[in-house]
Amino acid sequence: METRHFEFVVIGGGSAGYAAARTARETFENVAIVEDGEKLGGLCILRGCMPSKTLIYSAEVLHLAKEGAKFGLKIPEAKADMAAIHQRKLATIEDFASYRREQLESERFHLIRDRAVFVDEKTVELSESGERITADHFMIATGSVVNTPDVPGLKETPHWTSDDVLDLDFLPESVIVLGGGIVACELAQFMNRVGTKVIQIQRSARILKEASAEASEVVMKAFRDEGLTLHTETGLESVAKDGEDYVVRFRKNGETCEVRAAHLFNALGRKPNSSGLGLEKAGVETKRSGHIIVNDMQQTANPRIYAAGDVAGPHEIVHLAIMQGEVAAGHAAGKKVDPVNYDNKTGVVFTDPQIASAGISIEETAERGMDIVAADYPFDDHGKSILMEAKYGYVKVWADKATGKVIGAECVGKDAGELMHAMAVAIALGASPADLLKVHWYHPTLSEIWSYPLEDLADELGG
């Protein structure tokens, strides 16, 4: 069979892959995208960011309606119509997916619906057609897949993944959620708010280990205040199906505990989708975690092959995947490109309250030996958040004493993901607290809360 040759081939048509292909097409005429998914669009659009945030927002509106008495409102009944919520989600993600399909299927790219496996350092074979493809440059953007850890009985017991929860069109009576990461927490709260009895089991002492201890404590309190049953500091012993029930046994406080529910949700994380790609034949090296090892230009150990997005890490964040894809394609095209600056990264957890961060974490500043000054302010002493009954959380800002610049911030509270961008801009532009106090912080707004810790920092820095 004849071998086709391209200048740039992307394996995976998600956010990182599409960004790389689009950027490569600015220079190269012959760009191919190999995608083996049943549907086009990628994880974020089809089974990640967009469907989950659509559902979470519906649950937030429902939660506010149920809390109507706090606002002087008489709302006789507020309940979830899961079939209608499901249809709204499908319609919403179709808007995004249809645009992505249109772009991928356009004449700008050669779209190949097949699975690519490397057979040598410059060739892939398509699993279904058997055709071989060579390229001047490849980029691997195959994303991540659900991780099923070695918990006794878990692999043998039918269970939900995040895909199943995002596709619910009925109201589950009860569910056990295994895990305390971002996906686990966002979807556990969603199900709890629509009316499901939720039991969440986390191994460590707190959920959301990616966030600060202080931030996770706020969210844990909110979860428990809303009636979600949360077990922390546990050791899973077994998972099984007993008649119509799912049974999970775990150790806690030196004793064996047992919980039962109608459904089981495995939310114990994801892992890089790097197996079965023939990477060893291509000279591409991976970490023990399965992440593909790349340099700051996203090149693998084989310089003609790049990797970006969840399959490479170090963060499973869509906008970073897009930036990595653009860096890879620009470098392959011979352009002068800057690597992704992770010191400016932002992150958001869409629980309620939300957790948002920007810049270098306080823990990392300590590891780097940086001398910082930090200040915070609570939402329960802030005008706009009080009148909104949004009293959980705080804002916190820290600056580098050596330069006087803001280098990091954290916000836990109502719409933290929106509020964080004020600090993200400041960090990216190298602003000082005194610079930021030149801003007209409008009263009363949620954003105004940033001015209070900034005033403290400016005083301490002498700015």
How does this model look, in words?
The chain has 463 residues and is an alpha/beta fold. It has three domains: 4-146 and 271-340, FAD/NAD(P)-binding domain, CATH 3.50.50; 162-269, FAD/NAD(P)-binding domain (3-Layer(bba) Sandwich), CATH 3.50.50.60; 343-461, FAD/NAD-linked reductase, C-terminal dimerisation domain (Enolase-like, domain 1, 2-Layer Sandwich), CATH 3.30.390.30. The protein is built from 14 helices and 21 strands. Strands 1, 2, 3, 4, 5, 6 and 16 form a seven-stranded mixed sheet that branches. A five-stranded antiparallel sheet has the order 17-18-21-20-19, sandwiched between helices. Strands 10-9-8-14 form a four-stranded parallel sheet. The termini are far apart. The mean pLDDT is 96.
Q: Which key features would you list for this structure?
A:
463 residues; alpha/beta; FAD/NAD(P)-binding domain; Enolase-like, domain 1; 7-stranded mixed beta sheet; 21 strands
Q: Uncertain spans, ≥5 residues at pLDDT below 50? A: none
Outline: globular
Level-1 CATH class name of the largest domain: Alpha Beta
The termini sit apart by 70 Å
CATH superfamily of the largest domain: FAD/NAD(P)-binding domain
CATH domain fold name of the largest domain:
FAD/NAD(P)-binding domain
**Gyration radius, in Å:** 24 Å
